[in-house]
Amino acid sequence: MIKKRLRLYLPILVLLFLGVFLLRGLWLDPKKLPSALIGKPVPAVVLPVLSFNGPEAGAVQIADIRTLQSIDALKGQPWVLNVFASWCQACLVEHPYFIALAKQKKIKLVGLAYKDDLANTRRWLAQYGNPYDLILIDQQGQYGIELGVYGVPETFLMSANNTIIHKQVGPIPADYFGSMALPAIEASR
What we know:
two-stranded antiparallel ribbon, 19% strand, disulfide bond, cytochrome c-type biogenesis, redox-active center, Thioredoxin_ResA/DsbE_sf, DsbE family thiol:disulfide interchange protein
């Protein structure tokens, strides 16, 4: 008798569970992807720097670049790491916002040229403007893997002690600094 009832109600219970699970997904924001690195130190690394001046300016091969930057050396003030690429169409959407943010000089902007041809990166920045105080190169995408990058663009907000305090998947909004960066910096203090 109990087995008969279980056979009758079990499929209904499974369908009810699946329905609740799928219905919950309708209210989730697909741009809010959880990051295991929020609240943790940014992964330490030394990366090549994209230069527009000096003997390395003409270098198009990563092996020709001798200037390196340690992520640890960026400690001391909050900063933004924007993962971008010249082949990324969504990067064009947010790029004017970074240009405007750079003019305000409220926060240090670091670009991470992700899986991009360096000549294309230089051409793209020359065409659309360079908002970055520093441009690091991740040509193979290894550092992006350590950061948990899903794709480009992605933007990370770092505290003064290099802790990741916010991650934006997709283009940043026009009021990124006022609506996201500044409140996150204040909340992290």
